[in-house]
Fold this sequence. Notes:
Structural class: alpha/beta
Distance between the termini: 70 Å
Oligomer: single chain
Order of helices and strands: HEEEHHEHEHEHEEEEEEH
Largest sheet: 10 strands, mixed
Shape: globular
Strand order of the largest sheet: 1-2-4-3-5-6-7-10-9-8
Low-confidence stretches: 1-35
Strand content: 15-25%
CATH superfamily: Alpha/Beta hydrolase fold, catalytic domain
Amino acid sequence: MFRRIARTTRLGLAAVRRRIAATEAAAPAPAPAATVAGRFVLASYTNRSGTRAYKTYIPARHEGLPRPLVVMLHGCKQNTDDFAAGTRMNELADEIGFIVAYPEQGRGANAWKCWNWCQPANQQRDDGEPSLIAGITRAVIARDNVDPGRVYAAGLSAGGAMAAIMGHTYPDLYAAIGIHSGLRYAAARDLPSALAAMRGWGSPSDPRGGYSTPVAVPTIVFHGDGDTTVHPKNGDLAAPAFARQTVENGEERGRKYTRTVSSGKPAQEHWLVHGAGHAWSGGSVNGSYTDPKGPDATRAMLRFFLPSAGYRP
């Protein structure tokens, strides 16, 4: 009897061990840290020029050191979620480990949610919309352990035009800017001159702006040569004095491109995407105003912004 009880106990324990082993084998492995999503946090900023909502993406990856910050300025008819999805900037933030801030234009300021880049009040430091965007940038720097020497701004269309303004008015705050399908600093002074500039009908009388206006900080530009909303002429950059230029012709994801790099100071990089319209090159179909074809503008901008930190997205 005791032998039977002992044998039964041994068989029972063996069965339990087999069940435990099977359960452990079937349990999914923990997700790698790089695939864990971060936090997308909503906040607002107020100064004498008004109030703007913004979202900050805090990636899960964190090594305890101050991180770079990329400020993303959406185009007309877009919002923060739409722009984040279309550019995939948050995905790259998880992969590389930087913070992203998305100021959002309100309908009270513009019915189409465009940044009002053509108004003189929004083309100067410490006033209007530039003061709000700079205020949001400084708030994120102070709150989220950002390296103040590695802060960048990029935008699409009206957001690209505003990124150009931020680079000119706050060169001490932004280390470099990215302009996609946008316009140069002070390219217009009112709605009629804005429409003229967008159509490529000539430079405005404002001496600060015009075609081939020199940039104040390192600048990377993307523009499609089939853009019928903002003429590709607006993407032209004035080469720095004594700069050496290199031109590369290539093809990526079914679109050809011409990439021109100026080695002077400040550094400049210009991508003309052949056959592309008014859309973020290499973007995701999950967002508006994107073109999945062509070179990946998001990765190209990050390579331009962060080479000294060893980032090679």
